[in-house]
Design brief:
By secondary structure, this protein is of the alpha+beta class. Helix content is 44%, strand content 12%. It is built from 5 helices and 3 strands. The chain is elongated.
């Protein structure tokens, strides 16, 4: 269970499309101080895999508009929050060329080893004569 669950529960009860608490109000909801990183906008946005981001994204909110001077952050209701981004289109794969680079490297390596082996055999033969 995330330590940000109280914030998540608070946002789940919110009926409006916007909530603009002070950072102190958020700390009161959480029951602990926010980390120093919360003074930066990047802490409120970014990767959705962070536990604090899940607190609002899971309930359809996005955190925006960090106002450091006023000590507030604004949460906006967003129906797409928490949903994974659409898959990126993968470049087409040309079946005939798949794996050719690796095979070429292996072939080249075998050829080098065989060549070195033949060269060593000839040098050894020359020493015996």
């Amino acid at each position: 269970m995330s330590k940000y669950l109280p914030l998540s529960e608070r946002l789940a009860r919110e009926t409006g499309d916007q909530w603009r608490p002070t950072l102190a109000e958020i700390e009161a909801v959480l029951g602990f101080p926010l980390p120093k990183a919360a003074q930066q906008a990047a802490w409120w946005g970014g990767a959705s895999d962070k536990p604090h981001h899940r607190a609002w994204l899971d309930h359809g909110w996005r955190a925006r508009d960090l106002d450091r001077a006023a000590g507030t952050v604004t949460f906006h209701r967003d129906p797409t929050a928490g949903q994974p981004p659409p898959p990126a289109e993968a470049p087409p794969v040309i079946e005939a060329h798949r794996g050719v680079g690796g095979m070429a490297l292996i072939g080249a390596g075998v050829a080098v080893i065989a060549g070195v082996g033949l060269l060593a055999a000839r040098l050894m033969k020359g020493r015996k004569a």
